[in-house]
Amino acid sequence: MGLTKVWQGLWVGPARAISSPLLSQHSITTLVWATPEVHLPPLHEGVTVVHVLVQDNPSQQLGPHLRTVSQAFRECQVRGEGMAVVCRAGKSRSAALALAVLVALPEAHLTLREAYFTIKAARPFIRPNPGFFAQLIQYEEEVLGTASVTMEESPYSEGKELLPAVYVEELQQALCGGTFTTFVSLC
């Protein structure tokens, strides 16, 4: 899957999808490059690149970049231009940064939970790693004064793995919501 429009003027995707013609086609003038392991391709003049050089690892600090990326999107909106947020696969870092953008966007009026399901509806396989999600929860508390998502122990792992509640809910729905036929009750 290439670049996906997840909100008016906001796209998420993998770094390999980026090309100057694609950016021009969508009036994208700001590119958030969240993938230090992939080289930035040549881009046409007029594209601003915001570098978020973190690995997709739960211990990495994405938090310091959330306000910067959110502000970059607001500036794009004022100019009537678009922004693309990309990482290696378009699943974790880019999705986490796009979630921060929507939480901070006053006219969106979205909680982190609502932003997650909004982006997931457009790009179904997003999955920010648990460390990034924990940082997003903290960011939501800073921006909105409350958290709409908590971190919970996964009932499906033997360790003390903490996952965002929305992931646990999705897993429970998949296992217990009629998607699978089982002979042993899982719920």
Automatic annotation (TrEMBL):
SMART domains: DSPc (SM00195). GO terms for cellular component: cytoplasm. Residues 2-145 form the Tyrosine-protein phosphatase domain. Transmembrane segments: none annotated. Residues 63-124 form the Tyrosine specific protein phosphatases domain. Keywords: Hydrolase, Protein phosphatase. InterPro entries: Dual-sp_phosphatase_cat-dom, Dual_spec_Phospatases, Prot-tyrosine_phosphatase-like, Tyr_Pase_dom, TYR_PHOSPHATASE_DUAL_dom. One of its GO terms (molecular function) is phosphoprotein phosphatase activity. The keyword Transcription does not apply. It comes from the Eukaryota. Belongs to the protein-tyrosine phosphatase family. Non-receptor class dual specificity subfamily. This is Dual specificity protein phosphatase 18.
